[in-house]
Amino acid sequence: DAQEFRLHYQPLVDLQSNRVFGAEALLRWHDKDLGEISPAQFIPIAEETGLIIALGTWVMHTAIAQAAIWNQQGQHFRISINVSALQFQQANFVDILSSALKQAQLNPDCIELELTESILIRDAEETLKKLTAIASLGVRMSIDDFGTGYSSLSYLKRFPISKLKIDRSFVMNLPDDESDIAIVTAIINMAHALKLTVIAEGVETEQQKDLLTSLHCNEIQGFLIARALAPHEFESKHLQQNAKFG
Ligand code: C2E
Ligand code: MG
Ligand code: MG
C-alpha cells in the first residue's frame, strides 16, 4: 500500500551465444525507517503470515507488464518469476497467471516460473494437474535451487518442467571443490539426458564460467554478469547492448 516494493532484474546469459536472453525478477523492499531489507529476510515472514499471496500476485502482474514492455519491439525476452509454495497452492493460481498474461497481451513463452522442490514434493496428483494447466498456457517452468531440497527424480520424469537451476551453493566453490565439480557435472548430464536445459546461478568468476561452459551448462546468472538492476538500468546496460550487437 505504501509502494515500498520494487522488482529488480538480474540478467540471464546463454553460454553458447554469450547473449542476455532474459532476466530473473527479484523483489526488493525499501522501508522508510529500516532501509533496504533483503528478501531472504522478509519472504519467509511473508510466507508465514500469508502476505506472500498478495505480494506474489503483485510480483506476477508487475513482472508480466515489464516483460510486455521489453518484448514490444519484436524481441524475444524471457522473464522468470519466483513462486512461493503457498502462492502456488492457491486454487486460483493458474487463473491469476492466465488473466495477467491476457491483460498484458504477452506471449506466454516470455514467462518462466521458478518453482522450488518443496512445491513439487507435495500432493503429487494435484501438483501435476496444476503444472499441466500452466504448461498448456505456454508458460515454462524451472526448478530453482536444484539439489538443495528433496529431489525426487520421478517428478523430473513426470512433470512438465523445462529447466533446472543449479543452486549457488554448488557453484560457489568451483573450480576447486572436487565434490562440487562432481555434483554439477552429474546435474548437467542428468538434465540433458532428460532433455532439460540447465542454468547455474551465483556465477561470480571467469573460472566458474569457463568450467560451466566446458561442462556444457546452457546458461548462467550471477554477479560476474550483473546484480539485479532497476528496470531503467537493466535497459541501458543489457537491452540496448543486445540490440546493438545482436
Ligand atoms: P533465488 O530465487 O534463488 O534468487 C537468487 C538470489 O541469489 C538472489 O538473491 C540474487 O540476488 C542472488 N545472486 C545472484 N547472483 C549471485 C552471485 O553471483 N553471488 C551471490 N552471492 N548471490 C547472487 P535475493 O534477490 O536476495 O533473493 C533471495 C531469495 O528470495 C530468492 O532466491 C528467492 O527465493 C526469494 N525471492 C526473491 N524475490 C522473490 C519473489 O518475487 N517471490 C518469491 N516467492 N521469492 C522471491
Ligand atoms: Mg529464483
Ligand atoms: Mg535460486
Please state the average pLDDT score. Answer: 94
What's the N-to-C terminus distance? 40 Å
SSE arrangement, N to C: EEEHHEHHEHHEHEHHEHEH
Helix content: 40-55%
Largest sheet: 8 strands, mixed, barrel
Q: Give the amount of beta strand, in percent.
A: 15-25%
Strand order of the largest sheet: 1-2-4-5-6-7-8-9
Q: Notable features of this structure?
A:
alpha/beta; eight-stranded mixed β-barrel; 11 helices; binds ligand C2E
Description:
With 246 residues, this protein is of the alpha/beta class. Helices cover 47% and strands 22% of the residues. The protein is built from 11 helices and 9 strands. It has helices at residues 39-49, 52-70, 85-89, 93-104, 117-121, 124-137, 153-158, 168-171, 178-193, 206-214, 231-245; strands at residues 5-14, 19-31, 35-37, 78-82, 111-115, 140-146, 163-166, 197-201, 219-221. The chain has an 8-stranded mixed β-barrel with strand order 1-2-4-5-6-7-8-9, surrounded by 4 helices. Helix 2 runs parallel beside helix 4 (93-104). The longest helix has 19 residues, at 52-70. Bound molecules: ligand C2E and magnesium ion (2 copies). The site of one magnesium ion has 4 residues, from loops.
